[in-house]
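In the previous chapter we treated chains in isolation. Here, by contrast, the input contains two separate entities that must be folded as one system, with a combined length of 226 residues.
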Amino acid sequence: DAKTTQPTSMDCAEGRAANLPCNHSTISGNEYVYWYRQIHSQGPQYIIHGLKNNETNEMASLIITEDRKSSTLILPHATLRDTAVYYCIVRVHAGGTSYGKLTFGQGTILTVHP
Amino acid sequence: EAQVTQNPRYLITVTGKKLTVTCSQNMNHEYMSWYRQDPGLGLRQIYYSMNVEVTDKGDVPEGYKVSRKEKRNFPLILESPSPNQTSLYFCASRAGVYNEQFFGPGTRLTVL
């Protein structure tokens, strides 16, 4: 799976949009971008994933650049409960022997303040 | 409610005393995994299972065993725990290999 690079930490004001970047310059054509988050020592929680088109769900939006070398997770109206570590992961979505393994990096610590 | 449960949530034990951490999911998922999380090392996969009676090693399997006799359960067994297995453990399940993973609440294990 391709390696990802994320900022160590970010701050965001409550009610504002939180934009979390992820660099995955070595991503392959069959690798998807996944985002998970982990709220203080709880189990990681799936947020969203995509291949090349922008995606949106009830939690967030995922913007993937045209060359797919980077992406941005957008939390449109951040709340205090969104304070967490956010992980960007890229993984193969067809074939291979990964059998569902997700390789988590260090992630971005997002702090939402009042 | 769809969920992955783990028991116990917290455990303090001594070196060499066999223990089992249970994991159960109620979503009829085929795939289940165990991870450990350590400061500075992130989440690392210990073992995974693709279906009943089908298991394989992850990245850090040494010192652990698993079994998958029923689809819903995937216990993690430490036959002879050692202090370096002190960690936060997560069980996870998913419907298919490319589906989102659902994680349990975690088990914090301390081996003295």
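The CA atoms of residues 92 and 102 of chain B lie 5 Å apart. The two ends of chain B are 36 Å apart (CA to CA). Compare these points with the single-chain example from earlier in the chapter.
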